[in-house]
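Input sequence (386 aa), recorded before submission:
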Amino acid sequence: MLKRRTPLGWLQLAHHKSRFAVAIAGVAFAGILVFMQLGFLNMLIDTTVTIHKKLDADIVLVSIDGRDMVNAGSFPRRRLLQALGVEGVADVEALYIRNVQWIKPSDRESGAVLVLALRPDFPGFLDPELNAQVATLTLPGSALFDVGSRGDYTAFIEEVAAGARPQTEVNGKRVTIEGLFHFGASFAAESILLTSADTLGILDGQYDAGAVSIGLVQLAPGYDVAEVVAAINAVIGDDETIARSREDFIDHSRSRLAVDSPISFVFSFGAVIGLIVGTVIVVQILTSDVQDHMAEYATFKAMGFKTGYLLGIVYEQSAVLTLFGFLPALGTSLLLYEVISAGVGMEMTMTWERVLTVLGLTIAMCAFSGTLAMRRVVAADPAEVF
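Predicted structure, token format:
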């Protein structure tokens, strides 16, 4: 029966080619807008936890008030000593984070740079090569530069890679760039420098060795992370400092940004607006199509066809619009993701979860639009139509 059914929905759409094209464009526009808003939102969240993922720590100590790496807050250094006394803890170290002003090597203009500082001989990162580089930062005023920084640093990076040791200024103090590493820029920090805690003390007049930004805790083999986290929190007994597993630290930062950040709300609201715009366009198109064929629908009702059959026609149209609108939206968004990633220096990636989410939203949008367009047909009396 289904194979012999005439595809009335498709035939109605194809009959008015200009109207069909406008409907496809409306669905595609809505899909692109949703893809881009979700892409920006996830780029915001993903880049914010880039540094988190680079840290070699089973457990971290953080301030309760800390929001992200740029706004990590601080807690007393004595909490690290308390954590070191907990069974299972092999080593602890302080990571200091400061957002300071520097002279950008790219254009010699003043700008902000995020400085990460720790003890040079502490292996605080998952990358062994990076730890080896940090270990060389024993001379005051030496630092490493992030090649993933946002901006045109090509010539400067090539100079360092060639073996030169160029200098720049941080807070008016001379800094020698000893090498390169790669973390990547974020919404919060366009450039990153790695240095020692002693050098940070020289560069930042507000530096206080007793005020730690992040505590890195490494465990001895065989100990359960959750149990040691609970033990550290019990020993600390502090309403301002908390121990978290590395995974919980990442998840907490992501969720807090997604819930509390006004930028997150803006991007989410933009996605909703995209769906509303798409719904309005599709409703207008399908309503016009239904109005043009009102007599035919009335004839179907007079012949005894059920409401479900009539809705099936417009849902068929919705399915066609979903297919023809979603595919170009996906293709265009993939291209825009590449362009934006290259332009801003931050990775915007498409995930299968996002593809399926936007596909589901597109299907729901088109189906809802079809239902709205058919309200008059469902309520109409065939005798009134004729």
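Checked by second reader. The first helix runs from residue 8 to 15.
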